[in-house]
Automatic annotation (TrEMBL):
InterPro entries: IolE/XylAMocC-like (IPR050312), Xyl_isomerase-like_sf (IPR036237), Xyl_isomerase-like_TIM-brl (IPR013022)
Keyword rRNA-binding: no
GO molecular function: isomerase activity
Organism from which the protein derives: Faecalibacterium hattorii
Protein name, as recorded: Sugar phosphate isomerase/epimerase
Pfam families linked to this entry: AP_endonuc_2
Top-rank taxon, per record: Bacteria
Residue ranges constituting the Xylose isomerase-like TIM barrel domain according to the UniProt record: 27-250
Keywords noted in UniProt: Isomerase
Amino acid sequence: MPEFIIGARGHDFGRHTPEELLTSIGKAGFRCTQLAYTKAIEDVKSYADITPELVEATKAAVAASGVSIAVDGTYVELSYADEDKRRAEVAKVLSQIPVAKALGAGCMGSETTNMAKQPGVTRKEAQEALLRSLGEILPLCEEQGVLFAVECVYYHAMNTPEAVKMVLDTMASPNLRVICDFANYVGPENASVDAQRRIWDQVGSWYGDKIAAVHFKGQNFQPDGTLYSTSLEDSCVDYAGGFAMLKAMPQAALPVLREEAVPARAASDIAFIRRFCI
């Protein structure tokens, strides 16, 4: 069974210097973080603002706080069918691969583009764009020894276990990994525990050994199917089934990152998450 290391998404703590941010995360009781510079670090408006000095300050903050960088969060749109837009997004990732390496991040991570962002584009076209993007990103990741993880999201280009398996099989890269957010596999039509258990069986058997990080958040659905965020206690997500799958995986350790963290609720959230990790 992997060791589950409970952490939090950095930008849920606001924008700070690296020292202030990681100190706050550590004091809240979390041991690791998903760091997105453009969302969590003050004065960083674009990837061009991430200087070698800032990276060194981040490394010093990691050492001082004991809070490791589980995921270097690169919020990019890898599935744009428009080639100029897609290449611009890929360029952002390529610029950050040396940063992730310098930080010793567990992996880089990105979602795969909300389908609502490009009306008229089919999911097949979006997935083909995703494959082109990964084909440009993964060679440098392999050269630099950096893992790159993509995240399945119900309403994005890569939206089901079948789609994840297709991407992994097609790319066949030793450096391609998956971020597993249980909530992001669940829609109103598959929110029952039985339906979710079938999803976890697919995830575990098809690519569970490729999971590099886990996201943990609460959600539920209105009677009309509208998604809304909840506390962890009020979520419809089958955490017990998901973690039963994870416990059978061969990874030595897995970061479990609280998304939508409220620092004042950190202690109760950590206690809730820990129930599934033992």
